[in-house]
Amino acid sequence: MSRDFGYYWLRILVFIAVSICVGSVFHDVGSGYHAILARGACGGFISGFMTFMTIGGFPSFIEEMKVFYKERLNGHYGVAVFILSNFISSFPFLVIISFSSASITYFMVKYHPGFSHFMYAVLDLLLSIAVVESCMMVVAAVVPNFLMGVIIGAGFIGIMMATAGFFRLLPELPKIIWKYPVSYINYMAWALQGAYKNDMIGIEFETSQPGQPKLKGEVVLTSLLGISLDHSKWWDLAVVAAILIAYRFLFFSILKFKERALPIFHKYYTKRTLHHLKQRPSFRKTPPLPSFRKTTPFPSKRHVIHSLSSQEGLNSPLQ
User: Fold this and answer.
1) pTM for the whole thing?
2) Which family does it belong to (predicted)?
3) Would you say 128 and 47 are in contact if contact means Cβ atoms under 8 Å apart?
4) Burial 98-130 (b: 16+ CB within 10 A, else e)
5) Got the DSSP string for 161-204?
6) What is the pLDDT of residues 260-296, one digit of tens each?
7) What's the CA dihedral at 104, 108, 112, 113 to 10 degrees?
8) Can you count the helices (H) and strands (E) in the chain?
9) Which residue of 8, 190, 203, 311 has the fewest CB atoms within a 10 Å radius of its CB?
10) Mind listing the pLDDT tens digit for each residue in 157-179?
């Protein structure tokens, strides 16, 4: 991973560049009335698009899967070892990406002050990026090529963004399918809720008209952003971690299933192919063509076969 510049190093530079752009756009957003929308938009961009950029590593996932299949056939290691080693080897790079991006955006935007709030933002971004990487590994194990993987992965993350609670509030989502169960298994919905709680709880915002009492962050979360305060932000972070583990387990299950099912599928496909080949005229065993020679019921006198004993006294053709 460290030797391939495009695997993580280029992605680190891109994340840093995008973080600087986001920090400059939302620089010192403040706590005014219009800052409520700005803080929500910045949190939605970080939880949505900045995690969406993780699909840039999908070509490397495809190459890594090719190496794994070859080494697995040679019996070098098992599926569980591959998944664990892949996560451990990528973890330092994910820490660099999340820590650098969160540091730039957090202090340029001037989110909720405090070291614990900052570390929560780092962990939230770290787990979100890890979930997207695990999701793309699942896609890489299913699809046969790079193009299909990017299309399916981008479409899946797009659905996650649509049901995360930013473009439409969670209480307003259609209950069938989109709220139950999509929003509950959506890592981005839980990550965004935790990010909003981490930033707005304990902060007071100005109202639209001067002289009125300030709006508490808790009121903004429940009334304007549709975020429930029945559980803490750490519960949201724990759910994101659980979704990460679930994706890794799904990745393990798919690889084990392919390992068991592919030989059976290849055997069935081979038998079916041979069956179709046998039905082709060029592969049929046809009887030889009948002879067109005129057959007579009695042999001619020229071809009468005599025994050797009866041929005594006959003239030899050499005489």
Assistant:
1) 0.82
2) Belongs to the ABC transporter superfamily. ABCG family. Eye pigment precursor importer (TC 3.A.1.204) subfamily.
3) yes
4) bbbbbbbbbebbebbeeeebbebbbbbbbbbbb
5) HHTSSSSS-GGGS-TEETTEEGGGS-HHHHHHHHHHHHHHTT-E
6) 887 787 788 788 888 777 777 666 665 665 555 555 5
7) 80
8) 9, 4
9) 311
10) 999 999 999 999 999 999 999 99
